[in-house]
Each structure stands twice: as structure tokens, then as C-alpha cells.
Write a structure and sequence with these properties.
Blueprint lengths: L3 H8 L6 E4 L5 E6 L5 E8 L13 H8 L11 H6 L3 E6 L4 E8 L3 H13 L5 H20 L6 H9 L15 H4 L3 H11 L5 E7 L3 H12 L22 E7 L5 E7 L6 H14 L5 H9 L3 E8 L7 E8 L5 H17 L4 H18 L3 H14 L8 H7 L2 H11 L6 E7 L1
Parallel strand pairs: 2-6, 7-11
Antiparallel strand pairs: 1-2, 3-5, 3-6, 4-5, 8-10, 8-11, 9-10
Helix pairs in contact: 1-13, 2-5, 4-9, 10-16, 12-16
């Protein structure tokens, strides 16, 4: 029997696609999946929290709500979609806002009609705006103010970024920005960012790509271009000294977060850092759990991950302390693990296990028609659509020595931001 590593390499799925740009600037990407009776329709608008100003945050997330409130043509967005046996949802992050629909492939025009209608025809009344503002404010309270550890990420972002708009979360820097939002400001945001030039339509279905392009022209081709230009996002200055913040909260256990700046989404640093975090915390067999949770019994939980941002993001190491563990003891233990990884490369076993995991996740994820549609939109937004089929090879090419060198470069005290979230 072939080893798992070779099996994964041989069975990795190549996503086939064709792309086309309409005269109004809308980018269309189509993947044909002849085995699926369903269609996945994904619209990605390249607007997230990074496109907001520091005195007017939370608007990208607000529009994720407003876009479901209907137009003059379709007052109830969900009603015709339900008649077509479709389901829909959306999400917002710091880099983009994504709307997606799944429905039987024979009903695909229902999804395209609804999406084209709300791209420029959203009906925002004073009543609708006030209702959705209240919803967002309640969400802010539930997620950040009324639950344990709710403001950890808000505090950490504020430490790690001084200039780049990643310094505030998607839901906003303060609820006052949404509470005080005027209709005129909301309208300007919609008119600027919800345009065909700032959108990518990606479709997975049993239809031929040329048919999808013809349908895109039918439903979106009449929408005029707006002359949209990309925002100039300020770059974050290089961090040269350690940052630290300690707060006391009513939480079950003291928590530590240590964050380090890393490369952007298209850099090799991104893939190296992704692997670094799996060496540290890729399951219960990884180093932090085996040594600090199971072995030394200093912590109840540990984790390490990357933020996955388009612009230079963060590599974050976290730990929840056991009651008898001091903050100083926990920090020292975490730094010992980080320095060890910087001073010696991971073993062949660790690296092979991680590569197997990455490729298996990519392979299984690519079997889902909606995952493929979403990924096609995302990589198109990045400006490197073929990368969707190169990432497996990128992960394969990474060496043990590269990971150790990346750890030595990343895990420097002067590049760290430490948040101590202490139990009362």
C-alpha cells in the first residue's frame, strides 16, 4: 500500500475554471462540476473593515445586514429564493464581504436576478437603517461586552497595529460609529463599494462556463460602471520594540496572547507561518499541548494560528493558565517553546504530518461546490487566480530548515505584542 503522503499527492484535485470580465468591470469565474445537481453562486465585494476610516468603522459589517432588507423590485430577498429551493448567507471580515447562495442548478437565474437587483438597487429607508443599526449594536454587546474574553481581540488589534486599519475589528472600533451613522454616510458607502468593478461573481455548477458568462451578461451587464478606484491602504510601520498590555476581567481563567507580525497573503512567509503554528498547536500531538498542557500541566489550553489577512497579518500564540500557574511562569514556558523552534528545525515526522494534514484539508475542501466557488472568488480578489491550484505544491516545497529560519525571524521579543487577560 502506498504511504498516505503519496496518496494525497496523487489524488489532489485541480480546480478547473474559466474567467471573463464584463464591460462594466464585473469579474466572472466559472467552475463546471458535471456531477452536481446544485449551483453555488458567490458574490465577493472587495470591501471590509480595512476600507473604513478610524472615525467611521463597522460599515462593511452593517451592509452585510442591510443587503438582505430588499429592494424596490424585491421587498423580501428570501421569499423568491425559498420558492427556488435555495439557501443563502453572508459574512464580513477585514478584507472583503461575501454573499453566497446554493440552489438547484436549473434555478440558477433566480440567484443571479436577486444578486444583480441588490447590487445597485438596495432600498435603504430610515426605518430599515434604524432597525439594522439596533441589530448590529446588540451583536456588538453580545460578542464584545457581555461574554468572557469578548474584547480580547479588540485589545490585541489595538496593540499590534498603529496605522493600518486592521487595528479595529470588523464589527467596529466603537458602537458609537454605527449608532451615529447618518443616512447620507451610509448611502455614500453603498454607492462607492457596491459596484460591478469592485465585485467578483464566482459560480460552481453543472453549466458550461460560456453559459454562465452569458447569464452574467444578461443579469449584470446592464449595470453601469461607477468609475471605482481602489483605496490606498496605509502600510503598518515595522515594529521595533515589545508591546504589552495587562487587564483584569471577570473570566474563568487568566489568558495570555502573544502576537507577532508576519507576511502578507501572497508571500512565502504566509505558508511558513501557517506551518509554524501547526508545529506548535496542530492538535493534541503538537508541541504546546504535549509539553505545556499534558506534560508540565501549566495550562488548560493552548493554541497558535495565523489571522489569514490579505495585508501583513499576525501569528498568534495563546494559552489559558491553570489556577496555580503564574503569568511569569507561563510566559517563560511559551517563550522557551518558541526559541526551541527557532534554534532547531522540526523533525521529518512533524513536517510530514503537517503536510499531509494541509493537503488532505485542501483536497476534501475542494470537493464541495460552494467551497470551490468561494475560493475562486477569493483568489481572484488576491490577483492570482492560478494560485488556487499551486498552493499544495507551495506547502510541499517547504523544508525543515526554512521553518526554523522563519521561527528565528518571527519570534523576536522586539516584534511581540503581549496581552495578559487576568482573572479577577
Amino acid at each position: 500500500m502506498l504511504p498516505l503522503w503519496l496518496l494525497i499527492q496523487r489524488t489532489a484535485i485541480m480546480i478547473t475554471y474559466e474567467s471573463h470580465t464584463l464591460s462594466n468591470g464585473l469579474r466572472v469565474v466559472a467552475n463546471r462540476d458535471s456531477d452536481s445537481a446544485m449551483a453555488a453562486v458567490n458574490l465577493l465585494y472587495a470591501v471590509g473593515a480595512r476600507n473604513e476610516s478610524s472615525d467611521c468603522t463597522g460599515f462593511a459589517h452593517l451592509f452585510e445586514h442591510l443587503m438582505f432588507r430588499g429592494t424596490s423590485n424585491v421587498p423580501d430577498f428570501d421569499a423568491p429564493l425559498q420558492l427556488a429551493c435555495g439557501e443563502n448567507n453572508a459574512f464580513t471580515n477585514n478584507d472583503y464581504t461575501d454573499y453566497y447562495i446554493t440552489l438547484p442548478k436549473d434555478n440558477i437565474e433566480t440567484a443571479l436576478w436577486l444578486e444583480s437587483d441588490r447590487m445597485r438597487g438596495l432600498a435603504i429607508s430610515d426605518e430599515v437603517l434604524e432597525t439594522e443599526k439596533r441589530v448590529v449594536l446588540e451583536e456588538y454587546n453580545q460578542r464584545y461586552l457581555n461574554q468572557p474574553y469578548g474584547d480580547m481581540w479588540k485589545l490585541l488589534r489595538g496593540m499590534c497595529y498603529t496605522t493600518h486599519p486592521y487595528r479595529w475589528p470588523t464589527i467596529g472600533l466603537t458602537p458609537d460609529h454605527i449608532r451615529d451613522a447618518s443616512m447620507a454616510t451610509v448611502r455614500r458607502f453603498y454607492d462607492r463599494y457596491y459596484s460591478p468593478e469592485n465585485c467578483i461573481l464566482s459560480v460552481g455548477s453543472g453549466h458550461d462556463p460560456e453559459h454562465i458568462f452569458a447569464l452574467a451578461e444578461k443579469w449584470f451587464g446592464h449595470i453601469p460602471a461607477t468609475g471605482f478606484t481602489r483605496d490606498m491602504i496605509p502600510a503598518e510601520p515595522t515594529q521595533t520594540s515589545a508591546r504589552r498590555l495587562e487587564v483584569v476581567r471577570d473570566v474563568p481563567a487568566t489568558a495570555i496572547m502573544i502576537a507577532f507580525p508576519m507576511g502578507d497573503r501572497l508571500s512565502r512567509s504566509y505558508y511558513l507561518c501557517d506551518m509554524l503554528t501547526d508545529v506548535l498547536a496542530g492538535g493534541t500531538s503538537a508541541r504546546l499541548y504535549q509539553r505545556l498542557v499534558k506534560g508540565r500541566r501549566l495550562m488548560g489550553a493552548t493554541n497558535a494560528y495565523i489571522t489569514g489577512d490579505v495585508d501583513p497579518g499576525l501569528l498568534v500564540v495563546t494559552a489559558n493558565l491553570l489556577p496555580e500557574t503564574s503569568v511569569a511562569e507561563a510566559e517563560q514556558a511559551l517563550w522557551e517553546e518558541l526559541r526551541e523552534l527557532a534554534n532547531s528545525a522540526p523533525s521529518d515526522y512533524e513536517l510530514t504530518k503537517i503536510k499531509n494534514k494541509f493537503e488532505a484539508e485542501m483536497t476534501y475542501g475542494e470537493m464541495n461546490i460552494m467551497n470551490k466557488a468561494m475560493n475562486l472568488g477569493y483568489y481572484s480578489m488576491l490577483g492570482d487566480l492560478p494560485l488556487i491550484n499551486r498552493e499544495a505544491e507551495l506547502f510541499r516545497s517547504i523544508t525543515r530548515e526554512e521553518i526554523a529560519a522563519a521561527a528565528a525571524d518571527i519570534f523576536r521579543p522586539e516584534r511581540s505584542s503581549t496581552l495578559i487577560y487576568a482573572k479577577q
